[in-house]
Amino acid sequence: MDSSVMIKLIVLIGFFFFLSCLRVIGQGIKGIVINEAGDPLAYASVFVRNLNDGVPSNQEGLFEIPLTPGVYDVIVQHLGYEFSQKTIEVKEAWEEVEFVLKPQVYALEEVEIRDDAEDPALTVMRKAIAKAKYHRLQVAEYRMKVYIKGTGELTDAPFFMRRKLQEEGLELNEAYTSESVSEVVFRQPNEISERVISIRSTGENNQTSPAPYIGASFYADKINDIVSPLSRSAFVYYRFRHEGTFYENGVLVNKIRVVPRSRGEQVFEGHIYIIEDLWAIHSLDLKTSFMGFAIGVRQQYVKVGENVWMPLTHVYSFSGNFFGFKGHYKYLATTRDYEIKLNPDLVLDTEILDENVESIPEAVEEISAKEIAVEDLEGMEQLSRRDFRKVINQYEKQSLKERKDAEVIAKREYSIDSLAEKRNKTYWDSVRPVKLTQKEILGYQRDDSLAKVESAKKSNVDSLSGEMKRKFKVVDIIGGGDYYFGKGISAGFKPNWSKVSFNTVEGVKLGFGGYFKVERKDSVFQSSSSWRISPEVRYGFSSHQFYGVVDFKRSWTHMRRQMSYGLKGGSYIYQFNSEDPINEQVNAFYSLFFRQNYMKLYDKKFIQLYFEHKPSEAFSYQLSMSYANRNTLENSNDYSFYHKAGRVYTSNRPGNIEAGDGAFASNESLILDWNMEWRPGLKYYVRNNERHPLNSTAPLISFVYRKGLANTGLGEEAADFDQLELGVKHGFKLGVSGKLDFNVKAGGFINNKNLYFMDYKHFGGNRTIFSNMGTVNNYRLLGYYKYSTGGNYLSSIVHYQFRKFLLTQFPVLRFSGIRENLFFNYLKTEVSPHYWEVGYSLDNLFRLFRVEFGLGFEDGDYQKNGLRLGIASFININ
Predict the structure, then answer these.
(1) 269-273, 315-319, 505-509, 820-824, range with the lowest pLDDT
(2) Which strand ranges, in their side-by-side order, compose the sheet holding 70-77?
(3) Which of 291, 330, 459, 801 counts the highest number of beta carbons within 10 A?
(4) Using an 8 Å Cβ cutoff, are 747 and 723 in contact?
(5) What is the number of other CB atoms lying within 10 angstroms of the CB of residue 670?
């Protein structure tokens, strides 16, 4: 065949193929969903029954479904409205249709009015709660395609920030949108695999994932720490009211109002719709709050299998203000192409009886008296709700016992297609189930223009190169900076501004630190090895003394297992308490402005060999051997801005009730340290085959052994002691948002023949107005070294956070995110009195701060009080 003829034939075939594609995408159903007043109904569910598939309408009520020619039954649903159904024939073009929904008419049951009559909602919810776990477990596996769109607007900002926001490309009252399409697979008990097919975003962060939004189930006890209306303890937190029933698609639906017994955070309010007899969720419209931000959630379920209803659309809304910034954000997730695999053990059709209001037949009572297994339910026509729930609970426990990885709470697999960020506008127009609003279209046009400008400035390669090969700047010496030279070689400066301070031993003090590192990584085996040199120097302008230390460290990691050893040495200054109970900038502030020097320092010339090993996430230990020549230092500077008669700097020798002069003598000592930490019963979640520990699921048990090695040729002045310590630190969530945290340590010196003050057991004290990070790390009012001991001791710090206590009795304060706490701390050594602290705090003030007030007692006698200001407890900074 002639080549030109072949080319013409290929072109002709391609042309007809193109025409056929146009026919496929060139027709379907599009239209609008409105109410009788003509107002558009946002996020109505438009469901094509023939295909068991559907889409939601957008914020303007518009929808569009590409379909091949044929006849389709289209059902439109929206919470609060009667469903509408139309049979539509699709031909060669788009069929435009308007759905006008009428307000839902609810049939109210006649309730006998008597003193002991209860709301019908209680029976509905008791049965729904009894079957909640069944509905959560009945689908062994499902896969679906998920489209998610997030749209946000910044509606207000402080006037002094508006120009800066404009420079960054952010405008008030303009839409900022992100979209993604993913394939999601779920397997019991909690395994989600997600592959992102496409992403489109007006922001820089394209890691849009629908899994957190669609993975949460209202059949669970909690959804992100918020008590579900179908929780086993729901009646403790909610009241329920029956507001009527309606028929839809052949099922009777109960409308239940959810009323929290105590409004505020971590409880819902609104409506949940329950299908009669099946006792499954039909839809829900609920709201809650977190840290003063209003959160709304709407879900519309559809029937995807026999007696199986799953969400078709999810709508999540967030709004609030933060330090003058106001805005709102809305996520829409819509699911399509459900493929489900039912759990063969839970294909049941047992009627649930509520023993509170229904008479239980004798045959059912006889069954209930026996031990029933899930396999016994097959063919069982009736069962009380309590026994049904008991059977399902037993089944779940047995299933978890049979798992090989029972310690894994959740598994997540997340991947992004290589073409995900390269899809063009045509592609998005073809896959987007929800039409963009005019504001969203303008937002994309704006950001596409900005992207072209930025692209013209520099290429992605140049951007990456500029990031990785950072040029030296003089300010990096103070502010810190990292420099990469390729082949795993890097160097940098530490944030040396934090090493500028003042103390009475050195006067004005400057510090400087940096590092040099060589690292090799193996991404296949998720392992790395490195060695690192970290020098640090400091100079005091009053003491006229240089100090320096250097750390040589060799490290290996594999998965989350770690091992390292190193050599560290030099001549340096340290606080007597090696845990640095007072920050040097805070000490400088108190010294200069209040003439109070709390930080106490000593000089140490040393060399230390150490070994650290973490064979698993639940267990680690450290060993070290150090030789040290240690000397007490004296004050060399008396300067301060503040002068008051009688206010003088204290000696650099810490005040203590049991240490004599010998405890501060110069000494040469050889010290052995062994520290071990263990979290028994630790749980994990797995992401992309990498295990991550959930530390809150297990207590932290610590063990310390320290020994001063005598008879080593250092002379009689060498330290000679043996210290043992056992500690337990943990936290429990109680109720909706109550939380109990505690940190208990007990120990002592089984030998203290020759003990120096730097080897005493010190306790985390505080004499400043600034509270330490963490709620159970330090005492609030205790002197830094007053009760440091060389004997036996017991230390206990306890903190309890309330959901509702005194001020939070007022809903307006609960909704703002404020928390109230009580703390109760205790300390006893062989020499000290019984020291107690009790206090009260307001937490999460303005979502950032914590204010504490405490009282201190010795042997029951009041001694002191104090106010402390700190960072909100939910903020963790290491």
Answers:
(1) 315-319
(2) 53-56, 45-48, 70-77, 84-90
(3) 801
(4) yes
(5) 18
- Note the pLDDT tens digit of each residue in 664-680: 999 999 999 999 999 99
The model's pLDDT over 119-149, given as tens digits with 9 standing for 90+, comes to 899 999 999 999 999 999 999 999 988 888 8
Token pair for 577: 């308490």
Which segments of 157-283 does DSSP mark as H helices, in order?
A: 159-167, 211-214, 234-237
Listed residue (828, 819, 770, 769) closest to 799, CA to CA: 819
Low-confidence winner among 596-600, 815-819, 838-842 (lowest mean pLDDT): 815-819
- Amino acid sitting at position 398: Q
Q: Which of 88, 69, 61, 754 is nearest to 434 (CA)?
A: 61
SS3 state of residue 433: coil
- Contact indicator for 364, 383 with CB cutoff of 8 Å: yes
Which of 259 and 27 is assigned the larger pLDDT?
259
CA separation for the pair 617, 615 (Å, rounded): 7
Q: How far apart are CA 334 and CA 342, in angstroms?
A: 22
The number of residues in the chain equals 878
Torsion of CA 467, 472, 473, 474, to 10 degrees: 150
Rounded CA gap, 354 and 364, in Å? 12
Residues 825 and 843 sit within 8 Å (Cβ to Cβ): no
Statement: residue 446 has pLDDT above 90: no
Q: Residue 17 contacts by C-beta under 8 Å, 6 or more apart in sequence?
A: none
Q: How far apart are CA 113 and CA 669, in angstroms?
A: 86
